[in-house]
Amino acid sequence: MIRRLVSRQAPASNAIMLIAWFYGAIQIEKIHPLETGLFRYKFRRDRRPGLPIEAIWKFYPKYAVESVVKLAKWGRLYARLRAIYVRAKKDPKKLEYMDLAMTPVTDDEDLEMFHTPSAPAFLAQEHRRQHAHEHAAVA
């Protein structure tokens, strides 16, 4: 993804943060990305019913160590993604990068998706949108 962004000269800073956030939430925090942040709040008295409340002297040092370890993992993940970005940015052939998703469709390819009933409707909608955009630019 990062090589694709660099090859299209798109800003990658936001993409790097989103990749880190979504990947890190799953791999580091083990929760859904929309339920996480940089710090995960935990409270000593928030326990499942039937489980004993941990002692203060045991809970807070464990929570502090866990937080520091997770922040280090977040930092390492961001540094790794940033290194990939810098390597891709310095590549002299960065603008030549091409993958299957970026490969233009040729005339000799007979792709099924262009022969569905919804394809002509989509093309008509795109032509109307382009036509409206051209007229708005003239006005």
What's the gist of this structure?
The protein has 139 residues and is mostly helical.
N-to-C order of helices and strands: HHHH
Mean pLDDT: 86
Sum up the overall morphology in one term: elongated
Whole-angstrom Rg: 25 Å
Domains, number: 1
Instruction: Say how many strands there are.
Output: 0
Number of helices: 4
Question: Biggest sheet: strands, sense, closure?
Answer: none
Distance between the termini: 38 Å
What is the helix content?
55-70%
Description:
- By secondary structure, the protein is mainly alpha-helical.
- The chain has one domain.
- It is 57% helix and 0% strand.
- It has 4 helices and no strands.
- Helix 2 runs antiparallel to helix 3.
- The longest helix has 35 residues.
- The two termini are 38 Å apart.
